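Possible regression after last week's pipeline update?

I re-ran a chain I had predicted before the update to compare outputs. Posting the input and the new output here so someone can diff against the archived version. Not blocking, just want to make sure nothing changed silently.
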Amino acid sequence: MNKYRSHNCSELSDKDSGKTVSLSGWLHRKRDHGNLLFIDLRDHFGLTQCVIENKSKFFSKLEKLRPESVLTITGKVIKREKGTENLELPTGKIEVSIQSVEILSESKDLPMPVFGEQDYPEDIRLKYRFLDLRREEMHKNIILRSKVISFIRTEMLKLGFLEYQTPILTSSSPEGARDFLVPSRLNPGKFYALPQAPQQFKQLIMVSGFDKYFQIAPCFRDEDARADRSPGEFYQLDIEMSFVEQEDVFKVLENLIVNLFKNFSSKKIIYDKFPQIPFKEAMLKYGTDKPDLRNPLLINDVTNIFTRDDVKFDIFKKLVKSGSKVRCIVTKNTKDKPRSFFDNIDKWAKEQGASGLAYFTIEKNDKISGKGPVGKFFSEESLKELMKICKAEIGDSVFLACAKVKEVEKILSLARDKIAKDLNLIKEDQFAFCWITDYPMYEFDEETKKIKFSHNPFSMPQGDLNKLDYNNPLKIKAYQYDIVCNGVELSSGAIRNYKPELMYKLFAIAGYNKKQVEEKFGGMLNALSFGAPPHGGIAPGIDRIVMLLANEKNIREITLFPMNQNAQDLMMKAPSEVEAKQLKELGLKIDIKKN
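New output (post-update):
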């Protein structure tokens, strides 16, 4: 028998009554009743209540022992008295009467308690992450993460995929974020880069004649932290397939995602067949390419109404003449909402940096009119036209924003979420997945005033490749797609460009000459020139999937050892300075300019 335990701390039941058992774990909590001391012993699996009388020679030792010390307890299983059972625990009908105790490891005073789920400052939690991970919710989240990854691997193998590992040390490439660079000792003055994604390698796997690839891939990007993104590293389910079109990729991922979410959550999946929304439509209806489809509110373009003579809203009319757009959100049957509801939303919009949201409610007495600060500026006929465009009815309210396209999209996307939450329109017990498709191949960079790739530069453009309009690149669409759930982008993917000559032409539009393309992507271009299959793939983020399943808002809650917002590991004290000898071997000097 194992010298530390005969059972784990979630295993015993009333069927074990009378048995002598050994348990090992952490002292989770003590309750001193004078002549009796109750101890909750915790291990990875759960809790068992143990009890010792004050006449035992081990009583005083346990009485003084600090929480989170590690012990082995031997004793007899006894049924708890009726009324003292804890039916929320698997072991809640029994307790262990302690006969002997061995203290394996004593704990110091805790900087943060493990018992209880109250929140603590991030710096404490990250510095003592090993304690934070002992807490019940955190422990469950990490176990969930492991089970999700295991499930994904099993499902991918069932679907005929094989798992391959791609290099961690590779060359730097313009993927859109900053690379983490690694100096080469054997090649002085040169650097490896940690992969932002295995993009080129997974395509090379297809070119190498393998049919279906997947990998739980670590990715490294020197980006600022966000709630849904770790600074530095993250993991994704990397997928690539040969001889496929867009719909083939969709079919595989929908099958996987539906099975995964049904297996690990009781929430309802609204669509087993995910809606496909073109990028242009998404930006118009939702103001974002990451829409939360649980939210029934839609955005409508009503710019043309402000060209009418019978609309006297002069501020908006002047802006429209200078190229601004007017878009609106209609809320159903909100005529009885107090003035404060509308004013608070207008105030909130100003806090977001917008000029506010104009609003009115549609009412009908003798005729249709607008009630509210700007309602008087609209004639009955103009209101009827607006109602037709927006499918609005008497008693509905209209929130209006006027600005340049990107500005109006941004504020109304935020407003759509804000208003829906204020009106309790979002059902938290649902998952709503969708595909965003037909991304533009290029976009105009307002800062550099140049055209750049909008998504993945290795994507295949749509349409007849012999008739692409290279003179109007902003009109070229690509076989690029995102999968979104509840307003969270889980993944981007694409059907790949496997034609070298086409790649040169497409990169030229983004400002790369042939030499630059060959310097950056020589390995890929060389491989494609020896016969490459049509192929495509996608890479859902493991972290974001687990966040959704665990119902967590911050990636820190589902990651074993995350960094803080400044990309620092407070527990291991990274990043850290290195010795001069190490720098000398690498041919490096540190030159930090002091402010």
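Follow-up from reviewer: compared with the archived run. The two ends are 64 Å apart (CA to CA). Marking as no regression found.
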